[in-house]
Amino acid sequence: MSYQERIKQLREILEYNSKLYYDLDAPVMPDYEYDRLLRELEDLEREHPEEITPDSPTQHVGGTASSSFAPVVHEVPLESLQDVFNAQEVEEFDRHLREQLSGVEYSVEPKVDGLSVALEYRDGRFVRGATRGDGRTGEDVTENIRTIHSVPLELPEKLPHLIVRGEVYMSKSVFSALNAAREARGETPFANPRNAAAGSLRQQDPRIAAKRRLDIVLFNLQLAEGKSFQTHTDTLDYLRLQNFPTIPYRKMQSVADCVRQIEQLNENRAEFPFDMDGAVVKLNSLSDRSLLGSTAKVPRWAIAYKYPPEQKPSKLVDIIVQVGRTGVLTPKAVVDPVRLAGTTVTNATLHNQDFITEKDIRIGDTVIVQKAGEIIPEIVRVDFDRRPEGTMPYRLPDRCPVCGAKVERDVDGAAMRCTGAECPAQLLRYLEHFVSREAMDIDGVGPAVLQQMVDKGIVRTAADLYRLRAEDIAGLDRMGPKSAQNAVSAIEKSKQNDLSRLICALGIRQVGAKAARVLAQHFGTFEALERASEEELTAIDDIGAITARFLRDWLESEQGKDLIRRLRESGVNMTSLEQPTNDRFAGMTFVLTGTLERFSRDAASALILARGGKVSGSVSKKTSYIVAGEAAGSKLAKANELGIPVLTEEAFVAMLGEAPDDDGAGQDDRTEEAAQLSLL
């Protein structure tokens, strides 16, 4: 490969991973590896300066301002730092500075792995917070910054204008608790604290950010109108007096002391509340900093020493498979105890079957283990030279280790999932869906009540809900006799729901509320649906081959059959109550967009379906009409582009009331429609 091809390849890799890291908060490449590739690109461009272009990753700070937030132009740019990877490069940095300056003094600080922000104060009051973005333009995240308790909203000294720079982070303890809660809800855990902090700070709802319990540490004074300082450490001392949490520092006179402090920080990484990926060496004199200036991307007076992740070998003694509350099978490696980043590791994540296959991980192997983001232990690679004879490639089981049901791979991902309708591992999550508003819509039986029912063994399947008596649950926390009776009454009432709600409640993959309504109206009874072949299912609009297969697999499973049998015995309705009352919309497909004033999307959809029409979620040439409410967006634009008729809400209401023919038929239907509309 020529150097031109390698430069092109490196730029593509770095730009792609930079977008994942800065813009999407979903990095896949370890920081250390990214920094190594960036260094390789810098070296190649240094050797071939004619290849340098303004858009090269070496010439600009990673990240862009999201359109979801108002842009903020930084009055003082938020620069990146030049990375170094060994003591020799630190010594070279020192030598270069001493050739230009005398009396060099440094500040050595831990490098926090979080999200860089600028905080702005006017007359001592906090007025704005912004992300770094590309260094010159960031995102206005003021309201989310206000939720961070360690950010002072008013300062003791009322300077006319103050801008400080810090790193928003999620503490290790909060991160561990957050991931435990996400896993309990069946959600994907965050990969590391940096991702969690960045994702939290970019939430549109500040209440979510507040729940994430973010923190901040200040590491630089950007601007202080009416105040002057001689050194960087003086500014940190001043900020501490203004009630800011500031980065700990050590002043050093020699490069040898700097290297020792870098090593000391590395040894003590586990003691800090935040995740750190290196140490920062900064020239302390502010006047000398001004003299040296900056390149197009980084200041010449500071460097970031990047720590390689600590890796150690260990023997993989077993692989255990856990089943999450969404049915996903997660393999976990059991390894001989090994000390990493201040803790003893005995387990490591294996992610999924693709990860195991790609790295050819086998029980009995010697594996190299590290902590991803200094938090989550993971296997980096296998030491094939130490592989014992007789090891076998590992495959996840094709039957659920908890309930024995068939395991299937997600069609759109690498996850392997249990298909059991009554799998104990998924029970709580399944019950939460079953009683939800779009499914059986059972009031008074929320997650907290269901959790107690499951914990006490009162409910083991969804069908058990219909055998409950008030006295069975009256003793649960926050569930007195009246609440218990109300819950049982709500469960009893749900027996009369339309078939579409039951189909949705069953939790069959890819069968949501819309598909459930289509199936209920097409077949009329659950018995007819049970008899339907895959060919009959795929003949229905909006039911594809994959959905049809999921349906048939579920209906033919022993757990599925048992659940339906028990629900039927309990008196749950198995018939569609929402059959079309007329066919005036027959052959028509509607798309709803924007906010309707007179009724909800579900209500409008039900009225369309009751007239034999169809409701689609996307606009195509097959769309007959688009109903556009307030703040209609891209769907309306596409409809105009395709020349599809657009109905206002008033026109839609009028269309609902049109007579189906000229002989007066449908009068009863119009009366029914008026009654429905009056309730909306």
**Number of strand segments:** 22
By CATH reckoning, the class of the largest domain would read: Alpha Beta
Count of structural domains: 5
End-to-end distance: 68 Å
Number of helices: 25
CATH-assigned fold name of the largest domain: D-amino Acid Aminotransferase, Chain A, domain 1
CATH architecture of the largest domain: 2-Layer Sandwich
Characterize the overall form.
globular
Indicate the multimeric state.
Answer: single chain
* CATH homology group of the largest domain: DNA ligase/mRNA capping enzyme
Strand order of the largest sheet: 2-11-10-3-9
Query: What Rg do the Cα atoms give?
Result: 31 Å
The stretches of 5 or more residues where confidence is low (pLDDT under 50) are 63-67, 659-680
Structural class: alpha+beta
If you average the pLDDT, what whole number results?
Answer: 86
Work out the helicity level.
Answer: 25-40%
Described by strand count, sense and barrel closure, the largest sheet is:
5 strands, mixed
Q: Tell me the fraction of residues in β-strands, as a range.
A: 15-25%
